């Protein structure tokens, strides 16, 4: 009888098979809440996006709606730029925490930015870094030369503008170049993950945060300590960058992918080494005190790392 | 015209004229202008005719009142409502002048030049104001500039004290005195400006707005502390 058959327990097929048989069926899936459902990444199967809309999880709904509504003001109005500062204090602190303690395997952009890139973090982290490097360099030079009789303390204020130029150029031009390069490669190879320009600026800005405590600790006039600190901070911030950009290039030609990642890390290292070399005098070497001009106007400067 | 007198006997005005119509060929005479002697509010703000001393004294009094507000920062809206930039200009120029005469052995390693101090203060204040407006603050552009400029006053006082202390000598003790004074004034400036500006920000972004103010006054304090005379 049909009734008896109906009462027999039926083994349910795998969800995928069921859905393949009946594609329009309503499906529900329960996921852990902290895995972000990001609409950019096309790694997820299309079925998941349906689930998101049906479940109505706040994040996906909001990001879907907001992604459509954000940045709709024309670029000459003030509101357009306000959309780049749409962050709260705890969000900025979370992003900073995520850049200092990178979790292996988790992408910084996916986890923290989530299609809400902000310009607050990059701008003010760069400003803080500029002044931290200038002040720390000045302090460290002061302590190194403290006992010497010919030493006359100078504030070296000109170095602030040099530091500002270097760091802001790095934090804005390198993301521009990287974004252009990724866009170019995207047109040739269909990459699954792609970032907007602001997201790249965001990653670079927040990854520079770890250099702030490093620069403060560089006051310690020991060469070994300084190099250990530099390598440590380079690893931390470099890993944030690598984990962000590896998914964007890994589908490309192997050599190009490795070359891109290598260039990113190399430029990052160059910034750190350059700052250490230029702003912090070497501790042990004995050389005449900086910039005491002789009467005839020539100046003697010797510096080496 | 008899009708203009009030109804003395208690009757309504113009009672007898209910059916009078004025034909077009009766000339109308008399003064049509409104006498200027009325007590309209605009009258009090017409300052064109007052003596110059009054004008200057009024502005000076406003500036002085704001200085007093900075010295005893309470949440008053007087500083915000009637903004002016005279005070910040005077403070900025005097601070930049006092930072001159530093060790100018070579251009590259000396202290900040006049133009650099000026640019840092004004450009820094503009950037902080833009930052607070972009984060959704309700304060107006010039009000914020006014507050930030006036709150430089404690640091200008600190600079004055530092120069006087440096006249006496530049050893360790003078450095410690200068350090204490500058740190105290830096704290005062930051607290004063935060007291005025923090209320106009959305509550979950106060930290984001206060931090750049802290950085701004820190940089100015650093310039003051590292000032060494030739």
TrEMBL record, chain A:
Residues 100-273 form the Yip1 domain. It is a multi-pass membrane protein. The keyword Transmembrane applies. Pfam families: Yip1 (PF04893). It is found in: Golgi apparatus membrane; Golgi apparatus, cis-Golgi network membrane. The keyword Membrane applies. Residues 27-60 are annotated as: Disordered. Residues 34-49 have a biased composition (Basic and acidic residues). It comes from the Eukaryota. One of its GO terms (biological process) is vesicle-mediated transport. GO terms for molecular function: small GTPase binding. Signal peptide: none annotated. The chain crosses the membrane at residues 119-140, 160-184, 196-221, 227-249, 256-280. Keywords: Membrane, Transmembrane, Transmembrane helix. GO terms for cellular component: Golgi membrane. PANTHER family: PROTEIN YIPF, PROTEIN YIPF1. Belongs to the YIP1 family. This is Protein YIPF. It comes from Amazona collaria. The lineage of its organism: Eukaryota, Metazoa, Chordata, Craniata, Vertebrata.
TrEMBL record, chain B:
Residues 72-223 form the Yip1 domain. Its main location: Golgi. One of its GO terms (biological process) is endoplasmic reticulum to Golgi vesicle-mediated transport. The keyword NAD does not apply. InterPro entries: Yip1/4-like (IPR045231), Yip1_dom (IPR006977). Keywords: Membrane, Transmembrane, Transmembrane helix. It is found in: Golgi apparatus membrane; Membrane. The chain crosses the membrane at residues 83-102, 114-135, 147-169, 175-197, 209-228. It comes from the Eukaryota. GO terms for cellular component: Golgi membrane; trans-Golgi network. It is a multi-pass membrane protein. The keyword Transmembrane applies. Belongs to the YIP1 family. This is Protein YIPF. The lineage of its organism: Eukaryota, Metazoa, Chordata, Craniata, Vertebrata.
């Amino acid at each position: 009888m049909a009734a008896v058959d109906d009462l027999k327990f039926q083994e349910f097929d795998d969800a995928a098979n069921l859905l393949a048989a009946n594609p329009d069926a309503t499906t529900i899936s329960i996921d852990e809440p902290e895995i972000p459902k990001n609409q950019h990444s096309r790694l997820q199967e299309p079925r998941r996006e349906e689930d998101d809309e049906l479940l109505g999880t706040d994040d996906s709904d909001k990001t879907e709606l907001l992604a459509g509504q954000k940045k709709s003001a024309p670029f000459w109005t003030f509101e357009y730029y306000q959309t780049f500062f749409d962050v709260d204090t705890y969000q900025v602190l979370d992003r900073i925490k995520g850049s200092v303690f990178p979790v292996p395997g988790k992408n910084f952009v996916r986890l923290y930015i989530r299609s809400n890139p902000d310009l607050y973090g990059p701008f003010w982290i760069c400003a803080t870094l500029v002044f931290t490097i200038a002040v720390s360099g000045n302090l460290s030079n002061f302590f190194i030369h403290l006992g010497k009789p010919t030493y006359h303390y100078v504030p070296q204020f000109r170095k602030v503008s040099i530091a500002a130029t270097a760091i802001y150029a790095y934090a804005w031009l390198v993301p521009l170049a990287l974004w252009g390069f990724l866009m170019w490669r995207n047109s040739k190879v269909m990459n699954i993950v792609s970032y907007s320009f602001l997201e790249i600026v965001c990653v670079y800005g927040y990854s520079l945060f770890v250099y702030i405590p490093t620069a403060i600790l560089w006051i310690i006039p020991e060469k070994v300590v300084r190099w250990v600190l530099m390598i440590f901070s380079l690893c931390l911030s470099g890993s944030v960058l690598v984990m962000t950009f590896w998914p964007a290039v890994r589908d490309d030609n192997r050599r190009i992918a490795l070359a891109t990642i290598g260039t990113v890390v190399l430029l990052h290292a160059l910034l750190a080494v350059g700052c250490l070399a230029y702003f912090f005098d070497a501790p042990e070497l004995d050389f005449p005190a900086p910039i005491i001009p002789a009467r005839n106007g020539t100046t003697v400067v010797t510096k080496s790392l | 015209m008899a009708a203009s007198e009030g109804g003395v006997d208690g009757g309504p005005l113009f009672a007898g004229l209910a059916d009078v119509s004025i034909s077009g060929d009766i000339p109308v005479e008399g003064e049509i202008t409104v006498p200027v002697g009325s007590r309209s509010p605009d009258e009090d703000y017409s300052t064109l005719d007052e003596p110059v001393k009054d004008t200057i004294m009024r502005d000076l009094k406003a500036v002085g009142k704001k200085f007093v507000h900075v010295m005893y920062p309470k949440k008053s809206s007087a500083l915000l409502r009637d903004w002016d930039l005279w005070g910040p200009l005077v403070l900025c120029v005097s601070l930049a002048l006092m930072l001159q005469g530093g060790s100018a052995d070579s251009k590259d390693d000396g202290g900040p030049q006049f133009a650099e101090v000026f640019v840092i203060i004004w450009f820094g204040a503009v950037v902080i104001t833009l930052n607070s407006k972009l984060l959704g603050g309700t304060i107006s552009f010039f009000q914020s500039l006014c507050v930030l400029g006036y709150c430089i006053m404690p640091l200008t006082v600190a600079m004055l004290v530092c120069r006087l202390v440096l006249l006496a000598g530049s050893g360790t003790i003078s450095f410690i005195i200068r350090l204490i004074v500058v740190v105290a004034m830096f704290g005062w400036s930051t607290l004063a400006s935060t007291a005025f500006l923090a209320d106009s920000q959305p509550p979950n972004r106060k930290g984001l707005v206060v931090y750049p103010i802290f950085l701004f006054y820190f940089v100015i304090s650093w310039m003051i502390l590292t000032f060494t005379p030739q």
